[in-house]
Amino acid sequence: KDGESNGAEGEAGRYVATGSRDKTIRLWHIATGRCVLTLQGHDNWVRDVCFHPNGKFLLSASDDRSVRVWDLENARTLKTLADAHGHFVTTVALNPHGAIMATGSVDTSIRVWECV
Length: 116
Fold this sequence. Notes:
Layout: E1 4-10, E2 15-20, E3 24-29, E4 34-40, E5 46-51, E6 57-62, E7 67-71, E8 76-81, E9 89-94, E10 100-105, E11 110-114
Antiparallel strand pairs: 1-2, 2-3, 3-4, 5-6, 6-7, 7-8, 9-10, 10-11
């Protein structure tokens, strides 16, 4: 779809998440192709999304310079790192256990954070 940036696959391949220019994150059911959840909260383009290994959380990186941890069951932001970087946050990744996340930015920095 036009405007979607990056995607992540979760819950044993049943869902895919996409971030978009319209500042939203959408969770799609792969088998049906239907959007099952839309998350709103970023103030600019969502550049990257990443599922937490437990499948309960989703992380997002945005041009609003923030990183968010989303509670998928309750469709709300669990944690926000506002001004995580001095410029657009373009990527977010988790270690295999989901305790530590790393973010990267246009400001050429990489930062490491506690996840949840």
